[in-house]
Amino acid sequence: MQKLSSGIEGLDKILKGGFIAKRAYLIAGGPGSGKTTLGLHFLEEGSKHKENCLFISLGEKEEQIRENAQNLGLQLKKVDFLDLSPESSYFTQMESYDIFSPAEVER
Asked: Which of 49, 62, 94, 103 has the largest CB neighbor count within 10 A?
């Protein structure tokens, strides 16, 4: 079974080598719990192995993400970014902002 490194040695040890390849994973947690940090480490590790890596942002700007990554010692030189954040005018026209309905996520 092929495993993909998370980019975090201790986590890979717990996962007995990393994430199982060709599977989808949902990382959930509150603000500040490390979701983005885990993703950044995973992308950095993938880019070291010449994988195509894409960070999709739904709220934070690329410059801020890259700065945060650099503070963690990550370069992300070969990671592409796609910002799907809505423009601020969207919130003046709409009362809520949902990417997916709860029913779509909680199946």
From this structure: 62
Measured over the CA atoms of residue 97, residue 100, residue 101 and residue 106, the dihedral's sign is negative
Torsional class of 81: left (φ above 0), alpha (ψ -120 to 50), beta (otherwise): beta
Cβ neighbours around 3 below 10 Å, total: 13
Question: pTM to 2 decimals?
Answer: 0.78
Phi, psi of 16 (to 5 degrees): 55, 50
Q: Which residue type is seen at 11?
A: L
Q: What are 30-83's pLDDT values in tens digits?
A: 999 999 999 999 999 999 999 999 999 988 899 999 999 999 999 999 999 999
pLDDT in tens, 80-96: 999 998 777 766 666 66
**Contact yes or no for 40/76 (Cβ under 8 A):** yes
17 phi and psi angles, rounded to 5 deg: 115, -10
| Residue type for position 102 | P
